[in-house]
Write a structure and sequence with these properties.
Layout: H1 2-5, H2 8-60, H3 73-84, H4 96-107, H5 129-153, H6 158-169, H7 172-178, H8 184-206, H9 212-228, H10 235-247, H11 260-284, H12 297-301, H13 317-344
Length: about 350
């Protein structure tokens, strides 16, 4: 009776109505946030699809022209034949790019003609070389789409992400190198995948997550190691990811570097992946060939059919990988010095 006279019931009712109103407005706000998130996700999907379609259209149009061997396609084709025959062949570049193109030629059933001798040589129509180029063109289209994906992951809205992807998709150099049988487009895609995974790790660390940054950084290490196993110039992506992870460079990472176990996991994954691809290559191409004289006697003794296999102990796999990389370093320095001399002269 006292509670009713003192107005306590009315105050309690007003408070309940107020809480109900707050809850209702909070529910509406939550619905709007969900709708906006769904709209942003739909816009992002449309952006990725548009960039992919435009990039593929540009790259796949008249993919069989010119119907001739272009630039490094001649050298790459010879390497593809050697890999098919499992014959060892030394090159100044790591082997993953040539392995990728060999797998593409196997997928399209293209047998590299044995009479290829010079750049500009005609290729028979319907031989399958255009299909190998098409696979590389598809890789280039995915690479352009991933540029938009990186923009979106970095917090950009749909329109800037669309512009970024189309700039790469319509870039002349990127288009040309993805229309020929060369591993550069594959290398660029691996670098972009590595950076995308690293951005996933940095964004997860901003949310104070413990496990997700480590897992994403391991995936970034796998992609980085694969990129370096395609061409050594990809060490740049390792340096970039390491610098941002250590020092927290804005806008990618604004609150300082990530935890050191995460960075160590990145290095471990990259080094292990690099070693893995070399081990696969040297295990597959284990037959003696015409270029064995680039290597030491113990290395040659490890190859099937070598004249040195009888009198010498075969080299252990890790030592073969070390020697191959040592040779690449030595020959790349020699080629670099010759290039510098030619520029000076």
């Amino acid at each position: 009776m006292y509670f009713r006279r003192s107005g306590g019931g009315k105050a309690l009712r007003d408070r309940g109505i107020g809480l109900a109103r707050v809850g209702f407005w909070f529910f509406l706000l939550q619905q709007k946030i969900r709708e906006r998130a769904k709209l942003c996700k739909m816009r992002s999907s449309v952006v990725l699809l548009v960039v992919l379609v435009v990039s593929l259209a540009v790259r796949l149009a008249n993919i069989n022209r010119p119907q001739k061997i272009i630039f490094d396609e001649l050298v790459i084709s010879k390497f593809m034949n050697k890999i098919r025959e499992r014959e060892f062949l030394f090159d100044v570049f790591p082997p993953l790019g040539k392995m990728y193109l060999t797998a593409a030629s196997e997928l399209t059933h293209w047998s590299v003609p044995s009479n290829l001798t010079h750049v500009g040589q005609e290729l028979p129509a319907g031989s399958g070389f255009a299909q190998v180029r098409a696979i590389n063109a598809v890789v280039g289209g995915i690479s352009s789409m991933l540029v938009s994906g990186i923009c979106l992951e970095g917090g950009m809205t749909a329109w800037p992400a669309l512009v970024g992807g189309l700039m790469n998709g319509l870039d002349v150099l990127a288009t040309i190198q993805s229309r020929v049988m060369m591993p550069d487009t594959f290398m660029v895609l691996l670098e972009q995948i590595a950076f995308f995974f690293a951005m996933k790790s940095w964004n997860a660390s901003k949310r104070k997550s413990r496990v997700a940054p480590l897992l994403w950084m391991v995936l970034a290490g796998v992609a980085s190691g694969s990129a370096v196993a395609t061409k050594w110039t990809s060490y740049a992506v390792v340096v970039i990811i390491s610098s941002i992870s250590f020092f927290g460079i804005p806008p990618f990472l604004t609150h300082g570097g990530v935890a050191w176990p995460t960075v160590l996991a990145f290095y471990a994954a990259a080094a292990s992946t690099y070693y893995f691809w070399f081990d696969i290559y040297l295990s597959w191409c284990n037959r003696s060939g015409e270029n064995d004289n680039f290597t030491t006697i113990p290395f040659q003794a490890s190859l099937i059919g070598s004249n040195h296999a009888v009198d010498n102990e075969p080299m252990e796999p890790w030592r073969k990988i070390y020697e191959y990389n040592k040779l690449m370093w030595q020959y790349s320095r020699v080629l670099g010095c010759k290039s510098c001399q030619s520029l000076v002269l």
